[in-house]
Amino acid sequence: MATSSVLYNPLPVPQSTKKRSPSIARAPREIVLNPPHTSSSGQAARLAKSLLNLLHLHVEAPPGTEDLRFSRQVSSRDIDEKYSAPTKSPKEVICNKWREIHGSSDWENLLDPLHPGLRREIIKYGEFAQATYDAFDFDSFSEYCGSCRYNKRKLFDELGLNQNGYEVAEYIYAMSHVEIPRWLERSQVADTWSKDSNWIGYVAHSDDEETRRIGRRDILVAWRGTVAPSEWYEDFQRELEPIGNKDGHHARVERGFLSIYTSRSESTRYNKSSASEQAMSEIRKLVNLYRDRGEEVSLTITGHSLGGALALLNAHEASSAIPNLPTSVITFGAPRVGNSAFRDELRGNGVKTLRVVVKQDLVPKMPGLVFNESLDRFDEHITGALEWVYTHVGAELKLDVQSSPFLKHGFNLLGFHMMETYLHLVDGFLSTRSNFRADAKRDVALVNKACDMLVDELRVPHSWHQLAHKGLVCNEHGRWVKPRRDPEDIPSPIGVGHKQNFCC
Fold first, then answer.
1. What is the pTM of this model?
2. Long-range contacts of 454-457 (CB under 8 A, 24+ apart)
3. Per residue in 102-123, pLDDT tens?
């Protein structure tokens, strides 16, 4: 994997539902599955077909059934009723069963059928993961390209997430020593807020009202990922590196993921400390604060795609460093991260992991496309300690694009991986033996914000979500210009010495 592709997200999926503050969405690029220097569309098509056959991804409906499928299950009356219904399921009070919903029993008997309270929590954490895309400034004409567009005090207000009951405590920035990121080369602006770092996520905590509902003070860490599956082409198998400080341990993780999580440099402005150090410092501070108040505290870490990989690394470190802290990880479309010893260390530390996976999504099948946890069934004398084999961690909630009558069932590599596709399918999932949930609440139009996954009968334009006038505003002279950020939304507050340190 080229780390430059990982740290800069070329295909974000913003998810604000707040009309007065629209987010940005860029029309998706054509996704190909051939190496970067191969231009033949025939080769790409053959490779895509080979991958589909290898992975058994049946993504097309039987000929002639697409229209029937939609008309039989969704009428115009159904659509009208859905448009007039609230977009969120009612919040269930879970204070008496929070440990079970937080994964104390590895979500046994809660996934199939899916417990309504757990569904609501999964969507909540998924929205927090989506926020890392919504607020990310990917505009190549912006001098703050690669930063968060809002300050931490108003992030959730701007994205319409204030009803979820959390407050942002701190932002996290990341860099990498593996192929130093070149994301700034996309910028058309000579000066920038940082030449080395990207905004990669944030730490938050539940407010008093939400704490009462969920039965404990929840500390949240949300990690940003990439969206385009084509960026994972080189990740079918990458080098594994040791992690941790235990003598003789065999836990290993993917080198690029670990570099993003742990890299720092004194010459940078935002990564004098690593993403790991930033996150752990804030987690420790919040745990100590609320434990000193006599409160019960939990840690929930979430992320989509690459963000899911960083979430596991964060959980491994936090569970090793902070005793008796209930720690859960909820990931969406995440790749494999490490080997079986890494998985076993997470289990031994008490980390509970729930992987939400779409059957047709390619990213969760990598790295380790061929050699993976399925080799565990072979005799250890044949496979050895499996130090070089990638292994998934935790329980799995498996979703299927074909279960939704609202989604197209053709081949759409980008759409399969989109976070909004995941949230739509979670919202509609009842069980593997049931049809799509008739009373699903989430607005289906969100699925098409940055891709083309909804059936045409819904008449929702694809890639419809973008900043008004593509970010230009009309000034007092009647000229269309790029707006200036509010001073409070600039990554470093403007003040004495700002210009001197601007590019450090």
1. 0.81
2. 454/406, 454/407, 454/408, 455/66, 455/70, 455/405, 455/406, 455/407, 455/408, 457/70, 457/71, 457/74
3. 999 999 999 999 999 999 999 9
